[in-house]
Design brief:
Blueprint: E1 2-11, E2 14-24, E3 29-33, H1 40-47, E4 55-60, E5 63-66, H2 72-81, E6 82-85, H3 97-107, H4 113-126, H5 142-155, E7 160-164, H6 172-185, E8 191-195, H7 199-205, E9 208-213, E10 216-222, H8 223-228, H9 233-243
Parallel strand pairs: 3-8, 3-9, 6-7, 7-8
Antiparallel strand pairs: 1-2, 1-4, 4-5, 9-10
Length: about 250
């Protein structure tokens, strides 16, 4: 279980996150939705300590971290429990597809090179990239690069996978292939937090949706219920932009 309590984050004088508290259960898939600038990406980056929050606590099972006093050991422990799939892919340009997936396993001495290769090949097959193992990122489409990024995240077998708008950098025709892979792994009882603007996808895949607005949780609930029957006016207004009507049906 992941528990976030009273998390707050500023950039300069701008309060980006305001007193965020929420829990994510083991095996649960949570979608974070909201307008650009609402704090969605900042929130999940704080969970992986890619951004430092000013206050609050994060608990991963037995590990509880006070974000106002964080040691290097705690940061390392936190990152062992979560991994990020970035919107901009973040693959190593000078390494092949196979090497990109093997990297974390070998460098962190999780597996011997032969075992890391075997696991990487299995994961690349799972995301439909077996035929591209010797290609470099520059030789791949955006959708293919993102599928490699997902395989790389899965390789570390983290407690939770954090997806930071995984389709936002893709051309529209490539979005479906990445969402299909995420949907496939959503059936593996993995804990996932997904920042997304794809409302149909959130409704189909997520157990729960959290709507962020101006740095705070404006509404949260079961995915289908919240997306089809939002209670808060802020949520209704936001969803009307995507759904194009006032009945909020998906």
């Amino acid at each position: 279980m992941i528990k976030i309590e009273h998390l707050a984050k500023k950039f300069g004088k701008t309060q980006v996150l305001k007193d965020i508290s929420l829990e994510v259960n083991d095996g649960e898939i949570v979608a974070l939705i909201g307008s650009s600038g609402a704090g969605k990406s900042t929130l999940i980056r704080c969970l992986n300590y890619l951004e430092q929050a000013e206050s609050g606590t994060i608990t991963f099972d037995e590990l509880k971290i006070d974000l106002s006093h964080v040691s290097k050991k705690e940061i390392s422990a936190l990152r062992q429990k979560s991994t990020m799939v970035f919107q901009s892919f973040n693959l190593f340009k000078n390494k092949t597809v196979l090497e990109n997936v093997m990297e974390g396993l070998v460098v962190n001495k999780i597996l011997a090179p032969a075992d890391a290769r075997k696991k990487a090949l299995e994961l690349l097959s799972q995301v439909g990239m077996s035929e591209k193992i010797d290609s470099y990122p520059s030789q791949l489409s955006g959708g293919q690069q993102q599928r490699v990024g997902i395989a790389r995240a899965l390789a570390l077998d983290p407690k939770v996978i954090l997806f930071d708008e995984p389709t936002s950098a893709l051309d529209p025709e490539l979005v479906g292939e990445v969402l299909s892979v995420i949907k496939k792994i959503s059936h593996e009882d993995r804990t996932m937090i997904i920042v997304t603007h794809e409302m149909d996808f959130a409704c189909d895949v997520a157990d729960r949706v959290i709507f962020l607005d101006k740095g705070e949780i404006a509404e949260k609930g079961a995915a289908k219920e919240l997306l089809r029957h939002p209670k808060e006016e802020r949520t209704k207004k936001f969803l009307s932009r995507y759904l194009g009507s006032e009945d909020y049906s998906i």
